Amino acid sequence: MGGDKIGFHREHIVNSISSIADLCNENLVTILQHGELENNVSYFIDMEFCDLNLRRYVSGEETVDGLPEWSSADKGRVVSSVMRDVLAGLSYMHLHGKFHGAIKLNNSMIPVEKIANS
Questions:
Q1: Which CATH number fits the domain that encloses residue 44?
Q2: pLDDT in tens, 91-102
Q3: Which of 33, 43, 91, 105 fits as disulfide partner to 55, beta carbons 3.0 to 4.6 Å?
Q4: How far apart are CA 59 and CA 71, in angstroms?
């Protein structure tokens, strides 16, 4: 019974990734490649690099080299801008019949250019 559950989860993950891999939008992280490893147990996703996620940025857990410390107002502007981008990306996905099953701050990626230009 446990194997069936694992097989279901694996199939769900593979189908989810495959269905969104062809989406191309400036507000979505690009999936460069994905697939099963030779052992048929592990699956990999190779995505575009983003410097940090919204949760780590807002909490101050992570800073970016070369950028100054930010005030709460500065972070508020960046967060507002990132959230607009997140909503635009979700809208794009929905227009293409896709959905994101794990919307959270950890999955809201911020490219360093977004912070530098704020």
A1: 1.10.510.10
A2: 999 999 887 777
A3: 105
A4: 12
Q: Note down the domain range covering 48.
A: 2-116
pTM for this entry: 0.71
The neighbouring-strand residues paired with 109 are 53
For residues 72 and 118, what is the distance between their CA atoms, to the nearest angstrom?
Answer: 13
Q: How many CB atoms lie within 10 A of CB 60?
A: 10
Q: 117 pLDDT band (50/70/90 cuts)?
A: low
Q: How many structural domains comprise the chain?
A: 1
Q: Which of 108, 113, 114, 117 is nearest to 59 (CA)?
A: 108
